[in-house]
Automatic annotation (TrEMBL), chain A:
Alphabetical UniProt keywords: Aminoacyl-tRNA synthetase, ATP-binding, Cytoplasm, Ligase, Magnesium, Metal-binding, Nucleotide-binding, Protein biosynthesis, RNA-binding, tRNA-binding
Name assigned to this protein: Phenylalanine--tRNA ligase beta subunit
Domain FDX-ACB, residue spans: 715-808
Cofactor note: Binds 2 magnesium ions per tetramer.
Subcellular location: Cytoplasm
Gene name in the database record: pheT
Subunit structure: Tetramer of two alpha and two beta subunits.
EC numbers for this chain: 6.1.1.20
Species per Swiss-Prot/TrEMBL record: Fictibacillus fluitans
Residue ranges of every copy of the B5 domain listed in the record: 408-483
Domain TRNA-binding, first and last residues per copy: 39-154
Automatic annotation (TrEMBL), chain B:
Protein species of origin: Fictibacillus fluitans
Subcellular location: Cytoplasm
Family in the record: Belongs to the class-II aminoacyl-tRNA synthetase family. Phe-tRNA synthetase alpha subunit type 1 subfamily.
PROSITE patterns linked: AA_TRNA_LIGASE_II
Reactions accelerated catalytically: tRNA(Phe) + L-phenylalanine + ATP = L-phenylalanyl-tRNA(Phe) + AMP + diphosphate + H(+)
One Pfam family hit: tRNA-synt_2d
UniProt cross-references to InterPro entries, sorted A to Z: aa-tRNA-synth_II, aa-tRNA-synth_II/BPL/LPL, Phe-tRNA-synth_IIc_asu, Phe-tRNA_ligase_II_N, Phe_tRNA_ligase_alpha1_bac, Phenylalanyl-tRNA_Synthase, tRNA-bd_arm
GO molecular function: phenylalanine-tRNA ligase activity
Subunit comment: Tetramer of two alpha and two beta subunits.
Entry annotated with the keyword Hydrolase: no
Cofactor note: Binds 2 magnesium ions per tetramer.
Protein name as it appears in the record: Phenylalanine--tRNA ligase alpha subunit
Amino acid sequence: MLVSYNWLKDYVNLDLSAAELADKITKSGIEVEIVESLNKGITGVVVGHVLECVQHPNADKLRVCKVDLGEEEPVQIVCGAPNVAAGQKVPVAKVGAVLPGNFKIKKAKLRGEASNGMICSLTELGVEAKLVPKEYSSGIFVMPSDAEIGSDALAYLNLDDYVLELGLTPNRADCLNMLGVAYEVAAILDEELRLPEVQVETSGERASDYVSVTVDAKEDNPYYGAMIIKNITIAPSPLWMQNRLIAAGIRPINNVVDITNYVLLEYGQPLHAFDYDRLGSKEILVRRAKDGEEMVTLDDAKRKLGANHLVITNGEEPVAVAGVMGGATSEVQDNTTTVLLEAAYFEGIRVRAASKDLGLRSEASSRYEKGIDRNRVYDAAYRAASLMAEYAGGEVAEGIVEAGERLVSEGKAEVTKTRINSLLGTEIEAEQISAILKRLRFEFDVQGENYIVTVPTRRPDITIDADLVEEVGRIYGYDRIPTTYLFSEGRPGGLTPYQAARRKVMRYMEGTGLYQAVTYALTTPEKSTAFTFSEEQENVHSIKVSHPMSEERSTLRGTLIPQLLEVLKHNHHRSIDDVGIFEISSVFFAHEQSLSVLPEEKTYLSGALTGLWSIHPWQGEKKKMDFFVVKGILEGLFEELGLQSRISFESKSLPGMHPGRTAVVKLDSIAAGFVGQIHPGTQKDWDLNESYVFELNLDQLLGASVEPTIYQTLPRFPSITRDIAVVVDKNLPAGDLNTVIHEAGGQLLKESSLFDLYEGERMEEGKKSLAFSLKYYDPERTLTDEEVTKAHENILRSLEERFGASLRK
Amino acid sequence: MQDRLQALKEEALLKIEQASDLKALQDVKVSYLGKKGPITEVLKGMGKLSPEERPVVGAYANEVRDAITSALESKVAELEQAVIEEKLKKESIDVTLPGRPVRQGNAHPLTAVIEEIEDLFLTMGFTVAEGPEVETDYYNFEALNLPKDHPARDMQDSFFITEDILLRTQTSPVQARTMEKHHGRGPVKIISPGKVYRRDDDDATHSHQFMQIEGLVVEENVRLSDLKGVLETFAKKMFGEDRKIRLRPSFFPFTEPSVEMDISCFKCGGKGCSICKHTGWIEILGAGMVHPNVLEMAGFDSKKYTGFAFGMGPERIAMLKYGIDDIRHFYTNDLRFLKQFKKA
Ligand SMILES: [Zn+2]
């Protein structure tokens, strides 16, 4: 809502500047987003009288004018506007004047003729082109003939005004009109309120002799009223009205249309003027449109209507889409003499349906949608009729021809002083509460502590006590509410074990050198399931949003990896090629085609790594990212979580992954994720360098119950370390050997670690050598050589039996 | 004899003084103090001396021996020290060469902001509550006093999956779920961070996915003034001790009264600058007293219990705090962006 500061003065005394007013309104609950000065830096523009206007001797399109500026001598001004003529009163920028954009007017010579000033168009004075009345859109603006020569033109044009743009929340539709804003401002400033006084002299004729009104859709249209105004002369509306419309962002058209718009802005009541003589009947019938019914609207577009839309008809044909737009056939034209003025209450839902389907949003439709004060219909109709009588020469026929209930009853809400103070934390006195309710112009009764408030129909947002608490509080002033501190006895806050563990995982990941990424959950259907590691993930349905913004953001992801590869790609395209990132986010799985219950949500921890893992150039160190770097990161994580002994890595071929360099990660032999190099084909599709990824079900990892830590006594006896090197088949996994070593080593074997892998040329074809360092220890005593030898030989024997391993010589 | 000893002493000390390496010292030691050395020779002649002279000369001989031994030791130490110093000198390095880098990543700036806010509220006795990102219409809207066809639903154009299931547009459904779990018994004191989704075109200030943090307190006798206290504590911790806060009445369907909180501009201190759009105030969050309908729907007696709620956008806070000009940076994850938040 755009509120003219000058216009508002009609209703409320304003002894403060527009900026101060804006500040007070904002603090009291309606945010003033912008205070716009209509004067865009203009000085030196006065009213001039064109005394003489002749063709420029050397230029077809220019005229030479003698203009009286109220000074001793008239000045000569060369003007290019086609509509300039002798006798006109016009805005003139004098020599030395400044126009918007810091455009300074200087003495000039145009094609040999002196020009001492400039006759201005409205756009040259800073008015938006789309708001300039059509007759002046390609020329200078012509002012009323009574404008005083030499006086400040800005005041005539209301360009000394300020416009406050209100950012209205949905509950404050009452401020979508000047009277509503006036009620609000009067309450805030504790000032008197002057409402327009409307007096209509009616002719001897009766409106009901001209028209009958029937409503066939009472739920959509609870009230319809029609007035008849005869002997209208269509002409421009008065300048003050045009100025106010322009300030509110509406282009002036003619007196009748301007008056309906003016009253809309003033009362918030949409009105429509039909050309009575072109209505085609003496009847108004409001009904739902028929499916496929057509009509041509004011904008000359043919509209296809349906049963969801409400139309005004002449008994047969639609003449308007209710609350949205009138029809072309009954539009007010220059030769219109009799106007049928519609003042109706249409339900917001019905108006919204048509406005949405037809793609037409107007000042009227948006007000119906947000809700108007039904009890103002009558006042607004009479206000418009009286203005038509005054400014269009109209004669108003007596009465309003109506259908439905015009008045609705006012609601009640109750609140107590205790409730107000206990909710706000204040100590507002009873007299203060009464004074505030009076300022708001709410009628009320006091019964004991209880305020029984009659809520005016302009404020349907007030229904319960809390609403009244807010009204009292905001007028009282939120800056006067004290600051108090909650104290909570013996209830410490804290993270849940899951939340604490998740933070620990993040810190660990950061410590390994990975940066945390956050990416979008919506992706393409293909990417949403591009990476999987368990059969369970393959038996799910994709979850698409019903109205995606784009295919790229249409489906909820079941894996984080594609978005992380997207991040690698973004960086790669900027020559950032050493990247390690991780993300902890939700993934979504639907177990049914069409969701009837919420989908399953799991938290995944995923990562993507490419380029160099470590680099220290001047010492010649360079380590590329590889499978074992990533695996090492994960092993470290499992140790952090106390899960290392329950985790296994198994080679597996997975979609999008390198078949020989990918492992599924199992927790207690259940798949919990995977790690590996992305397939060279995938890498190419994504336009990446060699890259590694991992994805882990974090809920599964953090959900695993972990034994509490118990201190292990430090060794009191020496341990014995022996190495063992064996030759085995080349494709035997080292992990299998390790498992057997531990089985065979028994109680005494405490640690085994692989320290050498040899597959070189000194090795028999198809064989490799692996060397382990084995540590034996008994916490109770010193081990003897014989015992260790026995255990060691047992290990070697088992390896021979299980894998055909031979001791390396 | 004493003169002879005296001469030997001086001779030895001179040689020690002149020795330039350990080898030379060893030679001195052998030649003067050895069994065949001159001092021993001299002492062999002691038998010729009178019994009175003998102890005097013996003592003097020992004195000479000790002097030479001690000179030798200190010279050895001196030479050893020189050797060490020479070695260390050769080992010296250019300490201005760059060190071996240690890989160290960091949290995403949004996580950093969220954790900072969480930690602050944890100290005030809050717990962190989380909930699903895909929600039912009931928890996302209806339980928050937003029945179907409520005009305020226009404010949040949502990603629906079915007629009844959608991507949550706010983290408030976590409040509704948490209150429900309390079965009408307070106190409730939670903070709920998380991702939310709205049908917005992505640009410098809009994102179809973003973060939110909301807080909720439901207890007996909770007042708007208590909300003011909590928010003031938050504003000072987050944006500096000298911040002032301002509450303005506003509208949210799930609170009544509703407020918007501004903080005094941390850039210009309230004089007006581009960050605060020359108002001296920066809008930080929305809040209010929990609407009685919301309390009742969650099973609380709104006559007995009151509460407050507040909600804010970590992106906005991070953008203000670090001067970030484009919300898309948070989701593009350019490494040059992410690396800037090491100390966040
Ligand atoms: Zn500032």
